[in-house]
Write a structure and sequence with these properties.
This protein is α+β, with helices and mostly antiparallel strands and 571 residues long. It has 15 helices and twelve strands. The strands form three sheets. Strands 2-1-5-4-3 form a five-stranded antiparallel β-sheet, sandwiched between helices. A five-stranded mixed β-sheet has the order 7-9-10-12-11. Strands 6-8 form a two-stranded antiparallel ribbon. The two termini are 98 Å apart. The structure holds adenosine-5'-diphosphate.
Length: 571
Amino acid sequence: MRIKTKLTYGIGILFTMILLLGMLSIYYTNKLSQDAQNIFTDNNNSLNYCRNMLIVLEDMSTSESALQAFTTNLKSQQKNVTETNEKEITDKLTFHFEEFKSKMNEPNIQKIRTDIYSIMNTNMNSISYKSELTKQTAHNAILWISIAFTICILFTLGLLFRFPQSILKTIKELTGGIMEIANHNYDKRLHFEPTSEFGEVSASFNKMAERLNEYRVSTLSDIIANKKYIEAIVNSITEPIIGLNNEKEILFINNEALNILNLKRENVIKKSAAELSLKNDLLRRLVRELVSPEEKKEPLKIYADDKESFFQAKYIPIRVIETGETEPHSIGDVILLKNITEFKELDSAKTTFISTISHELKTPISAIMMSLQLLEDKRIGQLNEEQESLSQSIKDNSERLLNITGELLKLTQVETGKLQLMPKITKPIELIDYAIKATRMLAEKFGCHIEVEYPEKIAKLFVDSEKIAWVLTNLLSNAIHYSKENSRIIIGARQIDNVVEMFVQDFGKGIDPRYHQSIFDRYFRVPGTKVQGSGLGLSISKDFIEAHDGSLSVESEVGKGSKFIIRFNVR
Ligand code: ADP
């Protein structure tokens, strides 16, 4: 039943009961007052008249006023005949009074007295009967009013307890249902009476629970399907891949990675990579490189399936934007190992090829240079102007060729790891002098003024002087080539605490900051560079300096010039 109907019925019944109670009370009160009134008017008055008549009875024969009083009271009594027999007795009294009036003697008085007593008796009996009736009425009134009152109270109490309880029970059931849903029990259903106000609530609740259930089942299967799909993708990637969360636990790993790490899937998933790496050198290196990205990352050499393979590790941070947030945050990393064995093999073939060719070229170039020197000898014969210029051009180009083959050879030395350093204690000025001498002709050709900045006191270096002198020569040669004619070039050294710096500064075209990193890459040349070159000089120079645990860097601004700085730590 609807709460509204229950309330209407309850209050309606209560109202009717109260009305009934009120009517009963009015009815009985009325009846009782009527009875009392009846006794008073019907009988008490008669008794009063009789008493008055009795008082004056004895004096009637002697007193006119007594007779008068008797007559008045008798008349009143005649008008107040209410009981059965009372009329006959009153008539009898009237008759005997008339008799007395004609004959005033004691026997007649006696007759009158008897009649009066008889009337009084009748009224007394009637009073006693009527009070008995009134008592009965009062008793009934108390009974019915009590019954109505008790029913009223019981009904009110029933309404008072049952009604809130029935609402409370429903609300409790509803709260319980909501709690179950909150605890992910989407099978919970409510069964309220459909006609009640809560019927609609329970229908909506059940619909919501069903939808949530459907949603959970569908999302779960979707998630599982998507997970499997992603796992299949990860496994189908032919290169090793490892996914880690922020706690460095392995979330996924493909078969390739398991293979090269020599691990089993069941032993790694959800396990700490740091812990696993205690027993796995390769994983240890990967984790170390992941946590300290500033470390130089050499390719990994791995023996797997009886062959040597090379892998380049790539560490990709994974960042997501959570629902409701605007900033992405890290959820882990992916380690991708790129198999570079093929490139390595090709690179090694290329290095061998370059090395062989450079070697092979060196002898004929030297022979050409030798022949040119002979040609320039006046004893063989005088060259005319045109021939001299041709011979100079052949000489310049042969020198360039020799330089390039020299650079290529040095490169192959670095690449094959055959770079051998023969360090000795050297003063920086010796290296500077060597570089100046080696580029004197070139500087003269371009009219460059080379200035030297050298402090009085500077630490000596423990370096392979030939290699460092070659680097300085290369830097100075670049400074001359990339400056305008007749420019200033400064070469120098200085010491700041434990660091000895050697630098070559020019005021030439400068280098766009975009290329400050790339100029140290193999074969890289700033786009639009017209000066001829191989793009190897700076790259080899950097390798030479780093082989000495030093550093080579550039400070340059377009249009203002460049400064290349070599730094060595000295004790
Ligand atoms: P190469 O000079 O043979 O091209 P390098 O490795 O010595 O090769 O230099 C790489 C590139 O860096 C050059 O091609 C040139 O564009 C730029 N570069 C090097 N030194 C200077 C310099 N002093 N001023 C301007 N550009 C320079």
